[in-house]
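Bump. Still looking for DNA ligase structure tokens.
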Amino acid sequence: MADSHRSQLFEKFCSSLLDKIVNAKGVTEKKNILDEYLKEWKQNYGPNYYDLSRLLMPIYAHRMYGLKETTLANIIIKALSITPSSPDAVYEVISSRSLVRASSQTIKDINNLLDSLSTRTDSENDKDETVNSKHVHLFKRMINLYTPHQIQWIIRIILKDLRIGMSETSILSVLHPNAKELYDAGRSLIEVCETIADPRSELSSFNGVRLFSPCIPQCGFKCLSSNIDANIAKLSKPFYAEQKLDGERMLMHYDPEIDKFMWFTRRKNDNTRRYGTSSRDMHKLSGHIAKGLPARSVGGFLPFGTLKSTSKNKEGDLVESVDVNVDINDATKPHPCYVVFDVLLYNGKSLINNTLKERLSLLDITVKNQNNHMKLIPRVELSTQEEIMQKLDEAVKKQEEGLVIKDPSSKYVLNSRLPSWIKFKPEYIDSMAENCDLLVVGAKYGSGKYGGILRQLLCAVRDDTIPLEDPPKFITFAMIHSGLTDSDVTTLNSLAKTLYPYSPNKLPPWLYHPPNSNEKPDKLIFFEDEIVVEIKGTEINPSVQFGVVHTLRFPRMVKFRSDKGWKDVMTLSEFEKAKQDGRRGQKRSTEDQREKGKKKQRKSFTLIKSQQGFDTTGVSVKTSLFENMTFYVMNGNKKYGKNEIEELIHVNGGKFIQNKLGDTIAIGSDEDEIPFRLRVFKDKKMWDVVRAQYIVDCVELQDVLPLEPKYMFVTLDKTKKEFLKHMDEFGDSYTKYTDEDNVKELLERMGKDETESYEQRREIAQIIVEEYFSSEIEGAEFINTVAYFDYDPRMDTPMPLTVEWVNWKSIEEETKLGQDQYEFGLGYVSNSISDERITHVVMNKRNLSRFKSLKEDFHRPQLPRFVTLEWIKACMDNRTIVNEIDYQPQIPISL
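Sorry for the wait, here they are.
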């Protein structure tokens, strides 16, 4: 009979469960082992798996140890009284010193010890993560009570990384079919275990979300404008369109009966201290929005929205900013605004099974706008693709991020990303239609001032051919070295908690990166550190340096996505789709490739005597040099005429004909004066044409020489590409030694190209930087951009000078200085609004009078970014291109 007061030995948990799961192959076998173990547990210790689950899913146990690997290592060193420079591994040291051969400690005992460890704080030391004397004492106790093998598992539990090849989703699915659903809805681990242990629980109809319990919300489904038709066809008509906001998604919980607020991010992190706990706290957001919420609510209120940082300009319009850590009572400074777009609970009743239309009807009558601290997001009803595109155009002109289209008949599905909520974003010329959210799986150290600091990011996509309940796998996609500000570098080094040395032949099972790749990180970063970054790039190109055999061209970091985890990053399927979408416009149309008609048969004509070729009668073949080779000789050179070249071919085993057919090698003149027949061949570029000297050199050396540029009279593009694999465009081999004569010949062939434009030289520089430099070149930040600078039409100089003219002159000089700085950073300035290469429109924030007209002028399928002069300075200060969104001209936005 089961005895819930007894507890299983910790040794059995390690050897009969963890060790077996590690050694099992495949998730199915691992699940079977866990299932058998749970049956035995239930029979001996009862149906509540909480004590077991806290160890099996340490990341869900919510114990806060405040210990990273380095700190933990220092504690163990002190507990063992060994020198920090000891070369022995922890396991070896503990094994050699431990007197514990068998342990009587139970699962309850280890949970009590871990609870003590998580509550040990030291006001002087904990913040700095230095060695805490109380921690050392607990570890000494642990070493005296547990075997070395058990301590190995305990350390993994503390680090919240068991590495058993089973995800938390897989484990929950074995515990109970509804366990994951309960956890997503905000139940804690202990509540999940108690609920599934209670035979009276009706798990198939649990009551959804609850007040003050964090849940994982529904997110929008990504969609490109090219796929609108297929996605909107499934929506109820008319559907809702809302502005897509760039802010922090937040679930706010409120109970007016006890005047209590709680705020949770979409990853269930508690942000209550930041935004306020009470309506009386006028220094936090909660104190400014309570009047707009229901005054009486028996069971509380749970709206869902986005926190934006906002303030008023002089005209009273709402403008964007980024800093929310300011005095919220100072109306002149930016402050957070809660923009509400859904409600999930009202009067204690969960609304997730109500339709969106029903939820919004309730929201509209219960929530009231509160100045610029809380607003209901407006929405319009649309029915067609044309209406969506028109609305998206309007959003672009207002500098909004995009649209969210929602099905009014849809129900709310926790922890999902379904096409009942569809995100549409505009396409910009300097990036693909959709930025990529990628997982950071490795990093490289910087150089110079960044020496010893992780500075470049190896990023990966998630392999979604593997079910979410199985251990994940990630495939590398790009190395990012552009876009990281000094602040981003600091953030990266603080977020990277679990670092491994990179060894190309010993990669962890969750990662694939080509072993022979030249893109080698210095450190690998464990996927459960969940460092997600938003990356933009101009296009996806083939590359054998990364696991997906492609990479982004000119990749640039936009920002860290702390609101996302490894499950939210771009998947392999999404990558394949983005790759296909990136090829739009690159393929010629089918009709262009069709033949316009059948070719007419050409009549045969008798050649004149000079074109009939060398008479081989009585001339014997002496070598097999040109065996199985056929030539079409049009001309010879000064030393050897046409007939003599043909004789050389025949004597050395080759064939020659009098017309170009198939794979025949065409031989042309070496002369500067080109005969008419050859000129036609050269102008039409129908075939490669080889100089007659090639035949002479082959015969002299008695070897069929490889073709090189010096032998070519006419070279097709495909042949040039083959040459460039082995030599440069002038024929200088990458691998063969050269001599003085070859150098002279190369210099003669190179000549001097007076016609090469600045644009061509700049394109060559771009290729060199992309191909040969693994990080950005200081002073070349803008090399991949083209900018249009906004200047006011010139004013005549008045006499005497007026204040208006002095102000105008000051603005013009500021703009000119910004342009000079931009060009100094190798940016290219275009003065033509019609130039479709323009990636940025730069304005002086002191004069935005032409903003609306420029927005109209630059309204194109692919848009440039609008920025102020401050963007140029920020890029130069950070030695990289920074995110443009922080430097947009500040204009009123509608919420």
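Residues 121-130, 311-324, 583-611 have pLDDT under 50 and may be disordered.

Edit: fixed formatting.
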